[in-house]
Amino acid sequence: VLLVESGGGLVQPGGSLRLSCAAFGFPFSRYVMNWYRQVPVKEREFLALISKFSVVKTYANSVNGRFTISRDNSNNTLYLQMNGLQPEDTAVYYCNNGGSWGQGTQVTVSS
């Protein structure tokens, strides 16, 4: 199993980023997928979940209305569209298939 996140970077407050997570080595369409984030000295925080065929999407209160999770089962890729980013969104962002984790991608929100 391999999960590879990308799309992070430096963005100004109010800006947007789109994260991607490429999945390899498992039947992607059969797995519920998740996004998490983590800042130093804090536990990893759940952000969003998407069911196998995108019927169900669930968000943490902290990102609901600003972030959108999606997936492309034909390309084994998970996405996280992040709008209205704020400095408190600065973290390393991870995708997860319920068992495995990617290496993460850094998102920094700063002016």
Molecular structure report:
By secondary structure, this protein is mainly beta. It contains no helices and 10 strands. It has strands spanning 2-6, 9-11, 17-24, 33-38, 45-50, 57-59, 67-72, 77-82, 91-96, 105-109. A 6-stranded mixed β-sheet has the order 2-10-9-4-5-6, with no helix packed on it. The chain is globular.
Secondary-structure blueprint:
Blueprint: E1 2-6, E2 9-11, E3 17-24, E4 33-38, E5 45-50, E6 57-59, E7 67-72, E8 77-82, E9 91-96, E10 105-109
Parallel strand pairs: 2-10
Antiparallel strand pairs: 1-3, 3-8, 4-5, 4-9, 5-6, 7-8, 9-10
Category by helix and strand content: mainly beta
Compressed to H and E, one letter per element, the order equals EEEEEEEEEE
Strand order of the largest sheet: 2-10-9-4-5-6
Shape: globular
Radius of gyration: 13 Å
The number of E-state strands comes to 10
